[in-house]
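Protocol step 4 of 6: structure prediction from sequence.
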Amino acid sequence: MTDTVIARAGIVAKRGLLAASEHLDRLATWLQARNIAPVYETETAALAGTRSTTQTWSRDDLPLHVDVIIVLGGDGTLLSMATRIARTTCEVPMLGVNFGSLGFLTETRIDELYPTLESVIAGTAIYDQRTLLAAEAYRERERFDSRVVLNDVVFTKAALSRIIELSVSVSTGLMTKVKADGLIVASATGSTAYNLAAGGPIVHPRVDALVLTPIAPHTLTHRPVVIPGSEIVEVRPLPDAGADDIYVTYDGQSGYPLQKGDSIRIRKHERVLRLVKAPARSYFEVLREKLKWGER
């Protein structure tokens, strides 16, 4: 529960999601009837065809000006806002409404939107606290990039390149050397994303853990590993492995090629992300629904 007074609600829709456009004006009207100011993300305002009097902000600035963010779309849209919230000092909760075919994070259905919002306003909503990961990139011992992700940091080979070779260390020293098409370092939340598709384990989001999953490993002895969330993972290309063929991607949203001698250090971030839970639906019910467990 939370005692936060909701005076301004940010509204973000997936870019170009026409299916959401019909709901945007109704949502704004519903909020205004409860003395809550709707604040559109700039592109969402254009999608809604909203009046010029409605306040708008860019995706980067929106978390600074609202008390809750309502995301209409899929997990990718929610991930893009999660990283933006993490870059601020705000602790804005998010309510994800699923318009995609599969959503582990946007678990609220459109027919559940208004009852869920009522619980947020009343202060009776239940929130999931999701671990974030901090990733820092170093080149010649100088940090040149830092990111915050919710799901994963992924190392993959460039198009048509050979198998990549990576050295993976944890706080206590060298863990292993990986020869594979890639490597996923995922949070518990990210265990149901790319990690799951690559054959990694599902980890309950309340478990304090990191998951390391090789992608199509060259040897069958390389298996996914679950390690304590307190560890710091360092991944670097092996010196003779052709680092220029290795690409690092953050939450599937953005990334860049690595150079020889680069290293990426990944650890649990000191902050968490707050997600509004769907009413009367457990984590395992979401899994059963999304993964079609028990169906023929």
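Step 5 (inspection) to follow. The chain has two domains: 8-126+277-291, 132-270.
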